[in-house]
């Protein structure tokens, strides 16, 4: 008997994204469903009662003279039909799938409370899965009749049995992996996917696959599910007219196995092992919900295959509805209380749905006549044809960016040594200009881009475009005309003149430059050398303070920890690579 003394439990959740618009957030919706008594001859008071469409009252298992009231989005009693639950709680979510978003519906509750009946139903009274698939197929056929859209629906069906993902459409696939793509979506590689065009085809495939699901008899349920099942519907909606958009939506319909008390189910042997796996995955699911509600940076999705597959549904990018199934018998009081507590936490989880959409990309771009060097080559691009335009444009832009970076580096070096002799910088700049002028050769237009050869146009005709070669000539070093400035320990600046890489004395100058850095550079300057980290830089400074400057590269072998092999590698990285 329920007394009038009622405890109202307020539930609070700190939301860090309250400043975002509601359109970007979608809380998990929770529906509670109470099944009727299984044994009507037993006259006992129910441990819970549906008060109204959004409230349920249950006995306080600590003090049965009190009751606890919970509030949810929907509450259904034994008199409410399958149709009512589906029309109010599930059907509105199907519109999101057709708009390119993900949706998820899963049944939760203790064993023997009617989860499979809610999700699958019977032939005379179908549940959520057949009704949702039928409505999606009907909506896709109605959309296709407009001639503006084409809709393709495919299904996949799996179960998680003892932490192994089994393909129910192909029983040969017994232990499939779970992966995450670069966009963060969860997927199962190798999972069978079949296209369905009609409800009759779906029913034939689904009924055959359902017979492969693991079920067994216990003391509480003669057809107890020994695994979690997941039916995935993938909806691709393609626009038949410009701009040819495509929407990708998914609907996950999950029938969870119920939590079990082995003292009442009488499980032993294999049944006991199955029960342990089920309870472990449901406990991991509870930890995920707790982590999301408390705002933890780490959410333990990977602790279970179940939570990994439900990652999009809880705290992810899907619209989610959870149907919590309850039993009214007194011996289900503790299990029902635990299920209601979990449902109360779950309704506070916030998802952020995303619309997965693609459209036909722009394949051609025109070159602007007012875009500097690109504009000067617009005539050449037109002559070569629109097909080759997309190849030349990015290369010209890359060459222009490269030259700008070179000028910026020269100007920064000139500012660095502005108090001293700037003649090396000016020489380097003039040399770079002269090299560019020598490399820039006119191109003669041909019918094919691969047939364009450097040289002048034939006869007296004018060249139609000039493109500088992008690769480095073999006889010119990339740093041949760039001066180098190094600060010594006293703060003065040494500027090494730019030299030709083919000169015989280049090796000696490069070697002298490295030795100057070893003898006068600080830790930061030493770390700029190849093969030198902070530890080696400090060892080099300690050695030269005690023994004096380095005279030869071989002196590095005297530093503690620098073997001859390390010194040879240092020589190759800092001197030989620039020869």
UniProtKB/TrEMBL annotation:
Q: What molecular functions are annotated in GO for this chain?
A: ATP binding; microtubule binding; microtubule motor activity
Alphabetized, the UniProt keywords read: ATP-binding, Cytoplasm, Cytoskeleton, Microtubule, Motor protein, Nucleotide-binding
The record's InterPro entries line, in alphabetical order, gives:
Kinesin-like_fam, Kinesin_motor_CS, Kinesin_motor_dom, Kinesin_motor_dom_sf, P-loop_NTPase, RuvA_2-like
Q: Does the keyword Nucleotide-binding apply?
A: yes
Matching entries from SUPFAM superfamilies are given as:
P-loop containing nucleoside triphosphate hydrolases (SSF52540), RuvA domain 2-like (SSF47781)
Please tell me where ATP binds in this chain.
Answer: 109-116
- A Gene Ontology BP annotation from the UniProt entry: mitotic spindle organization
Looking at the UniProt record for this protein, which Gene Ontology cellular component terms does it annotate, in alphabetical order? Answer: microtubule; microtubule associated complex
Q: Where in the cell is it found?
A: Cytoplasm, Cytoskeleton
Pfam families hit by this protein:
HHH_3, Kinesin
Domain Kinesin motor, residue spans = 27-349
Family to which this protein belongs: Belongs to the TRAFAC class myosin-kinesin ATPase superfamily. Kinesin family.
Q: What is this protein called in UniProt?
A: Kinesin-like protein
Provide the organism lineage as a comma list: Eukaryota, Metazoa, Chordata, Craniata, Vertebrata
């Amino acid at each position: 008997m329920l007394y009038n003394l009622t405890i109202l439990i307020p539930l609070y959740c700190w939301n860090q994204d309250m400043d975002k618009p509601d359109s970007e957030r979608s809380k998990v919706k929770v529906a509670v469903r109470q099944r009727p008594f299984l044994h009507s001859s037993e006259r006992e008071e129910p441990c819970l009662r549906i008060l109204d469409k959004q409230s349920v009252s249950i006995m306080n298992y600590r003090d049965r003279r009190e009751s606890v009231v919970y509030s949810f989005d929907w509450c259904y009693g034994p008199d409410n039909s399958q149709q009512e639950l589906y029309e109010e709680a599930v059907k509105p979510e199907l519109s999101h799938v057709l708009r390119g978003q993900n949706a998820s519906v899963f049944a939760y509750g203790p064993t023997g409370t009617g989860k499979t009946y809610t999700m699958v139903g019977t032939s005379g009274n179908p549940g959520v899965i057949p009704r949702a698939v039928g409505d999606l197929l009907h909506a896709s056929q109605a959309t296709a009749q407009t001639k503006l859209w084409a809709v393709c629906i495919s299904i996949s069906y799996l179960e998680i049995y003892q932490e192994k993902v089994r393909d129910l459409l192909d029983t040969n696939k017994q232990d499939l992996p779970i992966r995450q793509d670069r966009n963060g979506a969860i997927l199962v590689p190798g999972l069978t996917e079949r296209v369905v065009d009609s409800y009759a085809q779906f029913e034939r495939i689904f009924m055959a696959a359902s017979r492969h699901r693991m079920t067994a008899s216990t003391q509480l349920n003669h057809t107890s599910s020994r695994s979690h099942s997941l039916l995935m519907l993938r909806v691709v909606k393609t626009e038949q007219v410009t701009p040819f958009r495509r929407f990708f939506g998914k609907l996950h319909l999950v029938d969870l196995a119920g939590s079990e008390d082995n003292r009442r189910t009488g499980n032993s042997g294999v049944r006991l092992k199955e029960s342990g796996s089920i309870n472990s995955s449901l406990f991991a699911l509870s930890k995920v919900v707790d982590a999301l509600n408390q705002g933890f940076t780490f959410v333990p999705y990977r602790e279970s295959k179940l939570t990994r597959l439900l990652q999009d549904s809880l705290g992810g990018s899907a619209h989610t509805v959870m149907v919590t199934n309850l039993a009214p018998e007194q011996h289900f009081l503790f299990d029902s209380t635990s299920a209601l507590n979990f449902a109360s936490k779950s309704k506070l989880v916030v998802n952020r749905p995303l619309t997965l959409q693609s459209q036909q990309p722009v394949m051609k771009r025109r070159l602007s006549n007012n875009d500097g060097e690109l504009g000067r080559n617009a005539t050449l691009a037109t002559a070569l044809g629109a097909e080759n335009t997309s190849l030349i444009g990015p290369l010209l832009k890359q060459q222009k960016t490269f030259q700008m970076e070179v000028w910026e580096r020269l100007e920064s070096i000139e500012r660095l040594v502005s108090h001293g002799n700037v003649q090396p910088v000016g020489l380097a700049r003039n040399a770079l200009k002269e090299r560019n002028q020598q490399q820039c050769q006119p191109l003669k237009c041909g019918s094919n881009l691969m047939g364009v050869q450097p040289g002048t146009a034939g006869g007296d005709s004018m060249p139609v475009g000039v493109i500088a070669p992008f690769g480095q000539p073999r006889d010119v070093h990339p740093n041949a005309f760039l001066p180098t400035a190094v600060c010594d320990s006293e703060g003065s600046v040494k500027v090494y003149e730019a030299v030709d890489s083919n000169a015989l004395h280049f090796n000696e100058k490069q070697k002298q430059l490295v030795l100057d850095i070893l003898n006068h550079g600080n830790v930061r300057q030493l770390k700029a050398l190849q093969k030198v980290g902070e530890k080696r830089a400090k060892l080099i400074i300690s050695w030269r303070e005690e023994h004096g400057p380095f005279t030869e590269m071989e002196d590095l072998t005297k530093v503690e920890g620098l073997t001859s092999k390390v010194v040879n590698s240092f020589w190759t990285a800092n001197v030989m690579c620039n020869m």
